[in-house]
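Input/output pair, single chain:
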Amino acid sequence: MSSSDPAAIKKSIRTYGIVGGLLLLFTVITVAVNQIHLASVALAITVALIIAIMKGSMVASIFMHLSHEKKWIYGALVLTVVFFIVLMMLPGLTVADSIGTTSPYTATAEHAAQKAEK
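Output:
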């Protein structure tokens, strides 16, 4: 079934309509939650983030067609993890860096040379 097939077009329009309706529903839920004034700020932020994640994932997967780009998404995720690991290792690597410092072996050799001169 090609993308110009009438059945595929009807299915796409139905999918867009359902997602549009769900986005409208989540917008109503957002306004309703705002009117409730939840007990704590942490709970309000948690609920707001859950609603935002739901709306954002629907927009990204359907309207931006990312549901068909699984290989690229997984590649970007792996690249993100690799860069995260490198960035977490950088402070440790800079602390372990010995450039510009005297090594204990050099210091011992210099100390022995000074003793030999005396």
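The chain has two domains: 1-68, 69-118. The chain has a mean pLDDT of 84.
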